[in-house]
Amino acid sequence: MGDASHKAFALAICVYFPACGFLFGFLWARLYMLGEFMRASNLLRGDKLCILTSSLPDGTVNLPYKQGLNASGTAPFKWTLASGNLPDGLSLNQCGGLSGTPTAQGKFKFSLEVEDDSATKKSQELSITIG
Questions:
Q1: Residue, of 72 and 17, whose pLDDT is higher
Q2: Which of 35, 89, 120, 130 is at a distance of 20 to 30 A from 12, taking alpha carbons?
Q3: What tens digit of pLDDT does each residue of 53-94 get?
C-alpha cells in the first residue's frame, strides 16, 4: 500500500469504528514515524555505494574465466565498463559477471563502474593478467 492508501484506510477505520480508529490512527502514526526514522538513519549510517572487489584473479589463454564483482549499497546494481579494454574473449554483464574464454596474453587494465538503485555511481580501476 502506498502512503495515500494508508491514510485513506486509517480515515475509513476512524469513521466506521471511532474507538478502534483512534487506537489504529495512533499506532499508525507511530509506525510511520518509525519508518521515517529508519529511512533517515540509513542515510546517516551511510549505506553508501562501495565497490568491494579490489583485484581480479589471473586467467589463462583458451581456458574459461568466470569472476563475480561485488558491491555494497542499495541493490540492484548495474555494472558497466567505464574505460579501457577487457581481454579479448571476456565480457561483463550488467549484474557484475565477468566471464568468457580469453584469447590473448597480456596485462589488461580497465575501469569498471557500478550504479546502484539510487543512481549513485562508483568506479574502480582493475586489471587482469592473462598468461
A1: 72
A2: 35
A3: 999 999 999 999 999 999 998 899 999 999 999 999 999 999
Count of structural domains within the chain? 2
Owning domain of residue 9: 3-45
| 25 shares its domain with 54 | no
Q: Do both 121 and 87 map to the same domain?
A: yes
Three-state SS string over 39-102 comes to HHHHHHHCCCCEECCCCCCCECCCCCEEEECCEECCCCCEEEEEEECCCCCEEECCCCEEEECC
Separation between Cα atoms, residue 52 and residue 96, nearest integer Å: 12
The model's pLDDT over 101-113, given as tens digits with 9 standing for 90+, comes to: 999 999 999 999 9
* Model confidence pTM above 0.85: no
Give the distance from CA 67 to its chain's centroid: 18
β-pair partners for 50: 72
Contact 63, 88 (CB under 8 A): no
- 8 Å CB contact between 101 and 62: yes
